[in-house]
Design a protein that fits this description.
The complex is a heterodimer of chains A (267) and B (402).
Chain A: H1 2-40, H2 46-57, H3 61-85, H4 92-130, H5 133-139, H6 144-182, H7 187-197, H8 200-226, H9 236-266
Helix pairs in contact in A: 1-6, 1-8, 2-6, 3-4, 3-6, 4-6, 4-7, 4-8, 4-9, 6-8, 8-9
Chain B: E1 5-16, E2 19-30, E3 34-39, H1 45-53, E4 60-65, E5 68-69, H2 75-84, E6 85-88, H3 100-111, H4 116-129, H5 145-157, E7 163-167, H6 175-192, E8 195-199, E9 212-217, E10 220-225, H7 227-232, H8 236-245, H9 258-275, E11 279-286, H10 289-296, H11 298-315, E12 321-324, E13 329-335, H12 339-356, E14 365-375, H13 382-391, E15 394-401
Parallel strand pairs in B: 3-8, 3-9, 6-7, 7-8
Antiparallel strand pairs in B: 1-2, 1-4, 4-5, 9-10, 11-13, 11-14, 12-13, 14-15
The chains are: A mainly alpha (267), B alpha/beta (402).
């Protein structure tokens, strides 16, 4: 008997884990679909979307620019020292721009916005949940998903690609700062290389990535906050802190995993 | 049966894990009445209320709203039913990142049934009625607990709902505010005729405003009836609970609560039977309390009422028994006093109190108090005597509120 239990326990644990994982994935998928539907449900919540655009988008511009310029500068430095070995430092512009547009831009933007706005979304919705504000919405016949998730999802879908574009632009400028201003590559060469090597498909690839990341971040962060009360044995402030942590961690992991999947499809 | 129940709970059961909270609750709530649910802390009163509004789903049993089971309702119907409801949360559940004004306006704004100017008017009207001044732009964390309760009450009533569920609307408030909230609920109920369900610990204060009382114990309804019936209930569990909860003094007036007054009446009656002595009863009714509430605000009105009661107590003999009798009535039992002597007491009382004046914060307002007298007859029940005092010769006094 003991032998059977020895085999059975890990198996049932694995089965239980898999089942709950599938259950949670389904729940998140439904949550996302409901959120998407409520972006367009009448009457449109334009003012709330604009508020969220301000919070998720406009207020992230500074931090995104800062990250963008430093990433671009580092890429410029690293790229130069690698390319100079092959005597092809003229390609620096292309290397920086392609790395940023195809990969670093969407990923780093998504991670930075997760850290700045995603955590705030999870905490805000989590606190609303534990202080019964979401229940209050329901008693007023206001759909909480429409009221809370719809505008945040819409604002993320709009602001992520725009923030990514800002990141790319500022990053290219950062590369120019190190490459041309510091290390003396001809600015004309730097920008011409960018113009000739970057194609529309690179831009669309980055754009699609940023859209997918927006959906992931908004859904995961809202979901974690929304179901704060369903966390086992974790209530109140502790529950909110755990929701915020897992919102950020899960979002970041999913961004990186989906980035690989997307890249392999888009290439 | 006076009318068809608007809400019916049938064998509602709910457990959270191994913890059985509701164990087959059967309860009917009738239209246009205020039903109070009492019971020990943690016995599932709030859980029951959340089942009624659909925030929680029962493990078994059904909840019927206007005869239709809540669980089988179609979406459109559920929506229509939900719009009739309003819920005041125990912890107020105000939106803490919205201002007081936005909080109250939210249900109206989201329903989009009114133009902006109308909403502004409605909300300002509600704020005025709730004695909330200069708080429009404040956030819930910037106002006091009592104010938050009133904001929550305003938010619950702003949509003019047909059914309002109050989850401990007065817990944590001082006696004046508590009574003010109770009379607000009662006034609005009279004015708009909504059906109210109140979960409360405030015994006996809450009985003054409710037509029916239900007691929840160990997940089941142990008693259901009128406030008068619950005082006469013989079930020891109900009796002990009521006696345990009821304070010896009415919080607002400092007098004995109604049930104690009735007890003292019975004692006097027993003495009358034994020693053949007389006793009389004076009933003071503040007739214009609603007008004062309306003009000066609920809190000022109740502060004045408290003042009035304090003054009166000071002018009575130590042997006289004062007790509150309902929302705006005070009953005084005068032992060993016949009708004529009682009349003298009444005159003296009025003269002295008029000279000293009953002070309160507002000006240009006066209490209109009707004072009726009745002499006890052997074995006549208290209700009969009260009726005599109310209908017989009475004098009206006006006490200025300075």
């Amino acid at each position: 008997m003991a032998k059977i239990a020895f085999i059975k326990t890990p198996l049932s644990a694995l089965g239980g884990f898999t089942l709950s994982l599938i259950h949670d994935l389904g729940k998140i998928a439904i949550f996302f679909c409901k959120g998407c539907l409520h972006i367009f449900s009448f009457p449109l919540q334009l003012s709330k979307i604009i508020q969220q655009l301000h919070f998720i988008g406009a207020k992230s511009v500074f931090v995104i620019s800062l990250t963008g310029v430093s990433t671009g500068m580092v890429l410029g430095l690293q790229g130069y020292y690698t390319l100079v070995k092959f005597g092809s430092e003229g390609l620096l512009g292309a290397a920086v721009a392609l790395t940023l547009i195809r990969e670093m831009g969407p990923v780093l933007t998504a991670i930075m916005v997760t850290a700045r706005a995603g955590s705030a979304i999870a905490a805000e919705i989590g606190i609303m949940r534990i202080s019964e504000q979401i229940d209050a919405l329901e008693t007023m016949d206001i759909n909480p998903i429409r009221f809370l998730v719809g505008p945040r999802l819409a604002a993320s879908l709009i602001s992520f690609p725009l923030l990514t574009a800002i990141f790319d632009m500022v990053g290219i400028f950062g590369g120019y700062l190190t490459g041309s201003v510091l290390l003396g590559i001809n600015p004309g060469v730097y920008f011409t290389r960018i113009e000739t090597s970057v194609e529309m498909i690179d831009i669309t690839g980055g754009f699609i990535k940023s859209l997918v990341f927006a959906a992931i971040v908004a859904t995961i962060c809202c979901f974690q906050g929304y179901y704060t009360h369903k966390r086992s044995q974790r209530f109140g402030a502790k529950g909110v802190s755990l929701s915020t942590t897992s919102a950020v961690v899960i979002s970041c992991v999913l961004i990186l995993v989906s980035d690989y999947v997307l890249t392999s499809f888009l290439l | 049966m006076p009318n068809q129940p608007i809400i019916q709970c049938k064998h509602v059961a709910k457990a959270f894990g191994d913890n059985r909270i509701l164990n087959g609750v059967d309860l009917s709530i009738h239209k246009g009445e205020i039903t109070t649910i009492i019971g020990k802390s943690g016995c599932g009163k709030s859980v029951l209320l959340k089942h009624v509004i659909g925030l929680l789903k029962p493990d078994s049993g059904t909840i019927l709203i206007e005869g239709h089971p809540l669980s089988k309702m179609k979406r459109a119907m559920r929506k229509a039913v939900k719009r009739k409801f309003s819920y005041m949360f125990q912890g107020t559940a105000l939106f803490d990142s919205m201002t007081v004004f936005e909080n109250i306006a939210l249900p109206l704004v989201e329903r989009r049934s009114l133009p902006k100017a109308e909403i502004q008017k409605e909300v300002e009207e509600k704020l005025r009625q709730m004695d909330l001044h200069d708080v429009n732009d404040k956030y819930p964390s910037q106002i006091s607990g009592g104010m938050k309760k009133r904001v929550a009450l305003a938010r619950a009533l702003v949509t003019q709902p047909e059914i309002v569920l109050f989850d401990e609307p007065t817990t944590g408030l001082d006696p004046i505010r508590k009574n003010a909230v109770h009379s607000m609920i009662s006034d609005y109920q009279k004015r708009f005729g909504f059906t109210g369900v109140v979960v409360s610990h405030e015994i006996p204060d809450v009985f003054y405003i409710s037509q029916r009382v239900a007691m929840l114990n160990e997940g089941q309804i142990l008693f259901e009836g009128t406030p008068e019936e619950i005082h006469r209930e013989s079930n020891p569990l109900v009796k002990w609970f009521i006696q345990g909860q009821e304070s010896r003094h009415d919080d607002l007036t400092g007098m004995a609560p109604q049930s104690q007054g009735e007890k003292r009446f019975n004692e006097e009656m027993a003495r009358m039977r034994r020693y053949e002595n007389v006793f009389s009863l004076i009933l003071l009714t503040v007739e214009n309390i609603e007008e004062i509430n309306e003009k000066a605000g609920y809190e000022a009105g109740h502060a004045a009422l408290k003042n009035f009661a304090d003054q009166m107590r000071r002018h009575l003999r130590i042997t006289d028994i004062c007790s509150r009798y309902g929302m705006n009535k005070i009953m005084v039992i005068l032992p060993l006093t016949d009708k004529n002597q009682a009349r003298t007491v009444r005159g003296k009382l009025a003269a002295e109190m008029e000279v000293e004046g009953v002070s309160a914060t507002t000006s240009d307002l006066s209490f209109s108090v009707r004072v009726g007298i009745a002499e006890a007859k052997k074995d006549s029940p208290i209700e009969e005597l009260i009726a005599t005092a109310e209908s017989g010769e009475s004098v009206s006094y006006r006490f200025r509120i300075q």
